[in-house]
UniProtKB/TrEMBL annotation:
It comes from Candidatus Accumulibacter vicinus. This is Caspase family p20 domain-containing protein. One of its GO terms (molecular function) is cysteine-type endopeptidase activity. PANTHER family: MUCOSA ASSOCIATED LYMPHOID TISSUE LYMPHOMA TRANSLOCATION PROTEIN 1/PARACASPASE (PTHR22576), MUCOSA-ASSOCIATED LYMPHOID TISSUE LYMPHOMA TRANSLOCATION PROTEIN 1 (PTHR22576:SF37). Residues 26-157 form the Caspase family p20 domain.
Length: 461
C-alpha cells in the first residue's frame, strides 16, 4: 500500500446549464450489496445491516443507489454490468460489498449466497464473482472516479474435508489492486479478519468497519482519499483497543480528488452567465478536516502524510513534535543531532555514489528473485522537513499486466534499522506502462533505506 500524496486544494465544477449535460458529467451511482443468508456455507449476521446503512447514507448525499440483499451469482453479475453501464463515460461510482470473500492464488472473489461447497479452487472461481473482473469492467467504463469498498475480510467459510487441503486462504483477502482512476478500500489488511463487534457488550447493528465508514462519507470538504485514510486510522485504533489486528488496506490510482460532500464555500455566479455554477472548497477547511481525521492517531504514517501535504500548515509544528522531529526531541543530552546527508536525485540508469553515504544508490534495491518484465527505471531520494522522500519509477517491459510487491527498510547512517518491518504493499503495473511509488520516511532517524521488491513472476537468482 503506497502513501497517498494527492490532497485537493480546491474543487471547481463548471458545468453546462442543460440538465442532460449535468447528468452526463456528474451522474453519481452506487451499487451496494449485502449478503447474510448463505445457503451452503456459514451465514453472517451484520452484512445486510451494513449494506443497508451505507445505502441510506449515500442516498442522502445524492447518489442513485442500486441496493441488493442476499443475491446469487447471476444477479450479482447482472447488477455489476448495469452499474458499469450507468457510470460509463465520466460518471462517479461507488461499489460496496459486505459478505463473504475468499482469496485463491492471490486473486480475490466475492461469494454469492447460492454458492455450493466447491470441490476445487477452479470450482470456486467458477461459482464466485472475481474482484479483478469487476475492476476491469469499471476501468473499461472510463468513469471519472470510482471507489470500491469490500467488507469481506472474514474467516474462510468453506469446511475443510479430512485429508485434503483447504480451498482458498485461511482468512482475509489478498492485497488490493487499483487500476488507474480507482480507489480501493478493504475492511482489513492482507490475511486479516474484520471484526463485527468489539466485545460481548457491543450491540451496534453494524460491524466495526462500517460504523467508521458511515460518518466519513458525509463530512463536508474532505476528499475521498483522506476520508478513507480516516477510516483506516480509526478502525486500526479501535481494533487494537481490544487486542485485535485489523488495519484496512487502502490503495489508489487517481489523478485528482473526489468529494462526497463539497465544502460550504460557493462562489458567486459570474455576471452574464447565470447558468454556470462554480463550487469551491476553502483550502483551510480542507486542511482542518484532514488534521481532525488524524489528530488522535498513534501512527507516524498519518503525521508524515500531513507534513507532505502541508509542510507549512497550521499544525505542522505539532505534527513534527508528534513525529519527534523538533530540535528538542532530536537533541540527546544537549548535543545537536548529526547533520542530515545532502539531498540526492539520482537516476538508476546512471548510478553513482550518494554523497558521503558510501554505496551507490543502485545498491539500495533488493530483489527477491530476478524480476523478468519489471525494472526500476528511476529512483530519486531527497530530504525535506528532516524526512526522507523517495520516488521510484517501475517500468513494465512486457505487454501483459504485472503484479509487484514492495516494502522499505528504514536505516540510520550506520545501516541499523530504525523502524519495524513494513508489510508488503501491492502495485499493479499495466503492460508497457510505468507506475510511480512515492514514500515519505516514517521518522527523522531514517537517513538511509533499502527498497525490497518481489513479483510472482520472478525467477530464482
Amino acid at each position: 500500500m503506497r502513501r497517498l500524496f494527492l490532497i485537493a486544494i480546491s474543487l471547481i465544477f463548471t458545468l453546462a446549464a442543460t440538465g442532460n449535460a449535468l447528468a452526463a458529467a456528474e451522474r453519481r451511482v452506487a451499487l451496494v450489496i449485502g449478503n447474510n443468508d448463505y445457503q451452503n456455507i456459514t451465514k453472517l449476521e451484520k452484512a445486510v445491516n451494513d449494506a443497508n446503512s451505507v445505502a441510506r447514507e449515500l442516498k442522502k448525499i445524492g447518489f442513485e443507489v442500486m441496493a441488493y440483499n442476499n443475491v446469487g451469482q447471476k444477479k450479482m453479475n447482472l447488477a455489476v454490468n448495469e452499474f458499469v453501464q450507468k457510470i460509463s463515460g465520466g460518471g462517479i461510482g461507488i461499489f460496496f460489498f459486505a459478505g463473504h470473500g475468499l482469496q485463491v492464488n492471490n486473486q480475490n472473489f466475492l461469494v454469492p449466497v447460492d454458492m455450493d461447497s466447491p470441490r476445487s479452487e477452479n470450482d470456486l472461481a467458477d461459482q464466485a464473482v472475481s474482484v479483478l473482473a469487476i475492476q476491469d469492467k469499471i476501468a473499461d467504463a472510463k468513469a471519472k472516479f470510482t471507489l470500491l469498498v469490500l467488507d469481506a475480510c472474514r474467516d474462510n467459510p468453506l469446511p475443510k474435508k479430512s485429508g485434503t487441503r483447504s480451498i482458498g486462504a485461511t482468512r482475509g483477502l489478498a492485497p488490493p489492486q487499483a487500476p488507474n482512476g480507482q480507489v480501493v478500500l478493504y475492511s482489513a489488511g492482507a490475511n486479516q479478519q474484520a471484526l463485527d463487534k468489539l466485545g460481548d457488550n457491543d450491540n451496534n447493528p453494524n460491524g466495526l468497519f462500517t460504523r467508521e465508514f458511515l460518518p466519513s462519507i458525509t463530512q463536508p470538504g474532505i476528499s475521498a482519499t483522506d476520508a478513507m485514510r480516516r477510516v483506516r486510522s480509526t478502525v486500526t485504533q479501535k481494533a487494537k483497543s481490544v487486542g485485535h489486528d485489523q488495519q484496512p488496506a487502502l490503495y489508489e490510482q487517481t489523478d485528482g480528488d473526489f468529494y462526497f460532500v463539497a465544502g460550504p464555500a460557493t462562489a458567486p455566479t459570474p455576471a452574464g452567465s447565470p447558468t454556470t455554477v462554480v463550487q469551491t472548497v476553502d483550502p483551510k477547511a480542507v486542511e482542518l478536516a484532514f488534521w481532525d481525521s488524524i489528530k488522535n492517531s498513534n501512527s507516524p504514517e498519518d503525521y508524515s502524510d500531513y507534513l507532505s501535504k502541508y509542510p507549512d500548515g497550521q499544525f505542522s509544528a505539532l505534527a513534527k513534535r508528534r513525529l519527534g522531529t523538533t530540535n528538542s526531541t532530536a537533541t540527546r543530552g544537549g548535543d545537536s543531532p548529526a547533520a542530515a546527508p545532502a539531498p540526492t536525485q539520482v537516476a538508476l540508469s546512471q548510478p553513482r555514489p550518494v554523497p558521503e553515504t558510501g554505496p551507490s544508490i543502485a545498491s539500495k534495491i533488493e530483489e527477491l528473485g530476478k524480476m523478468v518484465s519489471l525494472k526500476v527505471s528511476d529512483l530519486r531520494a531527497t530530504r525535506r522537513d528532516n524526512l526522507l522522500r523517495i520516488q521510484v519509477e517501475i517500468t513494465n517491459t512486457s505487454s501483459s499486466n504485472q503484479q509487484l510487491y514492495y516494502r522499505f527498510k528504514w536505516l540510520d547512517r550506520d545501516g541499523f534499522s530504525v523502524w519495524d518491518d513494513e508489510p508488503w504493499k501491492p502495485l499493479l503495473v499495466y503492460g508497457q506502462q510505468k507506475q510511480l511509488i512515492n514514500v515519505v520516511g516514517p521518522t527523522f532517524k531514517a537517513t538511509d533505506f533499502r527498497l525490497i521488491l518481489q513479483s510472482p513472476n520472478n525467477i530464482s537468482n
